[in-house]
Write a structure and sequence with these properties.
3-stranded antiparallel β-sheet, disordered C terminus, Methane Monooxygenase Hydroxylase, Chain G, domain 1, alpha+beta, 6 domains, about 10% strand
């Protein structure tokens, strides 16, 4: 049954979050009045204009989307009017049509918003303040700069995660689109066949209709995901300049900041007001706790236990408020320490370095930092515990019916837990802010947080090693890009090949090699048993089958690793010429090997002569054929030589082979008797075939002998080889002729003196 692609809700939700972040230039911070440099404003406007222009060129005309939406809505209305079950695949077509209408509506809305934005010439820029005037600068203004930088870094990290998620979303949508297009082509081919019956044609039309809608849905989903990714990338690119500007400004003013007495007095007044507000809240909670302690819960033991738990929760909340009140009072000490640290640093820069003041300020900051950080860790862990308790209590309340008596008590207990968690979160937030402020002052003094003991040192080393390992594992070796056009928009798919992916590919290739080897061996074993293949041919077929299976494994591994074949296209430019010339002979020999294997004019076990090499064919491989000569030496013959050159196959059609032995008898001998003796010797030898019978021909009247020629047949692979049979016959002929008194002619050796030159010996034949 056809199914729709999931609605990409995750990608859309992440997109909304990312665009929400991008719509907050200052993250709600109240910054001092500042001037944005004109050069920076011009660069930001240029970058935004270029990004928008690229999107406009790639997008479809805005006027096309409303028309397509109206057509899709009309199609959907026609489907809604049909009765259930009246046509095949009606429910699936309705579902696909609804999805198409929704996606087209999104495109129409986006086109309208883009048109409205084009009319507005103003660009939302991120304000990058600069602190004017002479140093020292206000510490509060520097803190605001750092707060804005922290906010931009958070947005940058969020957009990076969003972009990575959308990359995965685009790749998945591209795969779904490819599958939908393949299904559509298959349905079109089926519907276009004329041999289909009437019933088959009626069933093919709804399938084709559904495939067309699903193909359009896949196109729209890929287009929507790519648009979201483009906006996220544009937002990420727009953050680089503001972050760089803020970092430069903070580096300039950071060592030259001070907290004046007036600013400190204003802060202390705020802390007192905060402390008074917390004290008032604490007194109200104490009164509430007193009322609950005086109340008595009537009923079963469970009600009394719940009442005791509620009282304990209120007491812990009260403890949290007291700690929060104490922290509000301790903020004064924190800011005084920061004032002393800034004064020591700036005073040292302007009037000589006062190492005593800097050391005292560093000790104070270190001590306060350790205390606050320890309290923050405890508070964070306790907050996690309270969140788990709150989720459990919420589940208990939901399980109770509205009219059950226990629901009121459980709801009151849930409210108490929620109040305690709120107080704990406020406490954690105050401690986190204190840690942040202390960290900034310590950084200004050149202090860095280090491990307190050997355990912390090992922990930090392990975290650092894991980060390095993760960075190395995710390091991108190279990337491949594929472009596809959807409604006039070019969608780019980037496939990165990382170290981790490469290692995974190697592992899968090793496993695939083992599997291909085992499977090919198993298949050849069954084929050899069923088809009675020879061992030599089965061995050659096993090699070819294993090679084919390895190629299939390679394609599957690349598919699983999401690496397209085009990822290796970069090799073509650099190695095109070398591969072209180098692979020419390889491919030629490969094709020749395939022809030899299927033509079977030369098979394993045949005795052949090629290129001056004679011997038995051992193997026919992909590139070359191995021939073992009669001297036991293996010769590697390229497969193309077996097709291009003349090859003698001694055992190709028949194992029988004719051999020739020439015998010369002296003049005056009885030639007929000599011929009969030679024939008898051949007939008596076990290696000579009786059919056809041996034959002796009177070949020639030579200058020094009467030449007889013995023709006989023997069988290759018999008890004796050809040279052995020749040797045996020569021994027998020599003995027979000697016993009959028939002389074998021989050359005569004479000495000739060359008086004109050095003495030399020549072999002269006896004159006739």
């Amino acid at each position: 049954m056809p199914r729709l692609k999931p609605s990409l809700l995750f990608g859309q939700a992440v997109l909304v979050i990312g665009l929400g972040l991008a719509a907050q230039p200052g993250l709600g911070l109240e910054l001092p009045k500042s001037v944005v440099p004109e050069a920076l404003r011009a660069q930001l406007q240029s970058a935004s204009a270029n990004a928008g222009a690229g999107a406009d060129k790639a997008s479809s005309p805005a006027a096309d989307w409303p028309e397509r939406l109206r057509s899709a809505q009309a199609y959907q209305q026609r489907l809604q009017l049909l009765a259930a079950g009246s046509e095949p695949l009606l429910d699936e077509r309705k579902l696909a049509s609804e999805r198409r209408v929704m996606l087209l509506s999104v495109q129409v809305q986006a086109a309208n918003e883009q048109g409205a934005a084009a009319k507005n010439d103003s660009l939302p820029l991120i304000s990058v303040p600069t602190l004017a005037g002479k140093p020292p600068f206000r510490l509060l203004d520097v803190d605001q700069l750092r707060d804005q930088l922290d906010g931009l870094l958070v947005r940058q990290a969020a957009l990076k995660m969003l972009t990575k998620s959308l990359d995965t979303e685009v790749e998945a949508a591209a795969e779904v689109r490819a599958d939908a297009e393949a299904t559509l082509r298959r349905r079109q081919d089926q519907a276009g066949q004329k041999l289909l019956s009437g019933a088959q044609q009626s069933a093919a039309r709804p399938q084709l209709d559904l495939s067309q809608v699903l193909s359009e849905v896949a196109d729209l989903e890929l287009l929507q995901a790519d648009q979201a990714r483009s906006r996220a990338r544009a937002g990420l690119a727009s953050l680089s300049l503001p972050i760089e500007q803020l970092q430069s400004e903070i580096a300039r003013v950071g060592p030259q900041q001070q907290l004046s007495d007036a600013d400190l007095a204003s802060l202390l007044k705020e802390f007192e007001q905060e402390k008074d507000g917390i004290a008032t809240e604490r007194k109200r909670l104490e009164a509430q706790l007193g009322r609950r302690e005086s109340a008595r819960e009537a009923g079963p033991a469970q009600a009394a236990a719940n009442h005791a738990f509620e009282l304990e929760t209120l007491r812990l909340t009260l403890t949290g408020l007291r700690e929060l009140e104490s922290l509000a009072g301790g903020k004064a000490d924190l800011w005084r320490a920061r004032q002393a640290a800034a004064a020591a640093l700036f005073g040292g820069m302007s009037g000589g370095k006062d190492s005593g003041k800097i050391a005292a300020a560093s000790d104070t900051l270190e001590r306060m930092f350790e205390q606050v950080q320890s309290r923050l860790q405890i508070s964070s862990k306790y907050g996690d515990f309270l969140r788990a308790e709150l989720r459990t209590q919420e589940a208990r309340v939901q399980d109770l019916l509205p009219d059950e008596p226990q629901r009121v008590q459980q709801q009151r207990l849930l409210s108490a837990l929620q109040t305690q968690l709120n107080v704990q979160e406020r406490l954690s937030g105050s401690l986190s802010r204190a840690v942040l402020l202390l960290t900034r002052s310590r950084s200004d003094l050149g202090l860095k947080q280090g491990p307190d003991n050997a355990t912390d040192l090992l922990t930090d080393a392990g975290e650092l090693g894991s980060r390095w390992a993760a960075a190395a594992w995710n390091y991108e070796l190279f990337s491949a890009t594929e472009n596809t056009s959807i409604d006039g928009r070019i969608v780019t798919l980037d496939y990165g090949v990382t170290v981790g992916k490469s290692v995974g590919i190697l592992i899968m290739l090793v496993a695939g090699y083992w599997l291909a080897r085992w499977l090919s061996r198993l298949l050849i074993k069954h084929l050899a048993q069923r088809l009675s293949l020879s061992a030599a041919f089965a061995r050659v077929l096993h090699r070819w089958l294993k090679t084919i299976l390895l190629l299939v494994v390679l394609m599957i591994v690349l598919k699983l690793a999401r690496i397209p074949i085009t990822a290796f296209a970069f090799l073509g430019g650099a190695l095109a010429i070398g591969v072209g010339f180098g692979a020419q002979n390889v491919i030629k020999n490969l094709i020749s090997g395939i022809i030899i294997l299927f033509e079977r004019k030369i098979r394993v076990g045949d005795i052949v002569s090629v290129g001056g090499v004679s011997g038995t064919v051992l193997t026919v491989d992909l590139r070359a054929t191995t021939v073992r000569g009669f001297d036991g030496i293996d010769a590697i013959v390229p497969n193309s030589n077996l097709l291009e050159n003349q090859v003698s196959n001694w055992s190709g059609g028949s194992p029988d082979m004719r051999r020739v032995i020439t015998v010369g008898v002296a003049y005056g001998a009885d030639v007929r008797r000599a011929a009969n003796l030679v024939r008898d010797c051949a007939s008596a030898h076990a290696g000579v075939l009786p059919e056809p019978p041996p034959e002796v021909l009177f070949e020639d009247f030579a200058s020094d002998a009467l030449t007889l020629r013995l023709l006989f047949w023997f069988r290759l692979g018999g008890p004796s080889s050809g040279p052995t049979v020749d040797s045996d016959l020569r021994f027998a002929i020599n003995d027979a002729l000697a016993a009959a008194g028939i002389a074998i002619a021989f050359p005569q050796r004479d000495v000739h003196l060359d008086m004109a030159g050095p003495l030399r010996v020549e072999l002269l034949r006896k004159p006739a």
